[in-house]
Design brief:
mainly beta, six-stranded mixed beta sheet, globular
Length: 171
């Protein structure tokens, strides 16, 4: 299954360590490590298979050409700056199983019109999707109690935000 996947995988933990523009992520992978695909500018799309539960810090940071990301229902955690500077991403939708996102996950994704994170609870982190200029609507899921500093700074296009009854503080 891992033959011809064009990636380096730590088999003891099923962690993808280094990927390439030609990588096909095997179904046996459980986590994608920090910086695994960082700065691969020619990557246009990626399919993250079912079974992957976590994306590390800066996993796709600087993938300027990345437009489409298909995420599995099994994904529960996204590390800091995971999709930072993915200037071409159009939409990001996650299942309600994805409950943990770290700060600056979607910072500098100015083309992202749709960002749906229904499973987030607790807090929306600092600079969550700062400098996203085209997103017009954002639904803050029930269960979110706080919004981190500058979470939506320079998001000039936002016209409508749905705020949950659980929200108690903003920075």
């Amino acid at each position: 299954e891992m033959n011809n996947c064009n990636a380096i995988i730590e088999t003891a933990t099923n962690k993808l360590i280094v990927g390439s523009i030609a990588s096909v992520i095997p179904e046996s992978v459980v986590t994608i490590g920090p910086r695994a695909f960082e700065d691969i500018r020619g990557m246009v799309s990626v399919v993250i298979p079912e079974g992957v539960t976590a994306l590390g810090t800066s996993t796709f940071e600087g993938c300027y050409g990345l437009r489409f990301v298909l995420t599995p229902k099994s994904l529960t955690s996204i590390g800091q700056k995971c999709f930072s500077q993915c200037f071409s991403i159009i939409a990001m939708t996650f299942s309600d199983q994805m409950t943990s996102v770290d700060q600056k996950c979607f910072v500098d994704c100015p083309s992202c019109d749709v960002l749906q994170t229904p499973g987030i609870s607790g807090s929306i982190p600092q600079e969550f999707c700062a400098r996203n200029r085209t997103m017009m609507d954002f639904v803050i899921p029930e269960g979110v109690t706080s919004i981190g500093q500058d979470a939506f700074t320079y998001c000039y296009g936002i016209m409508h935000v749905t705020v949950p009854s659980t929200l108690t503080s903003t920075s």
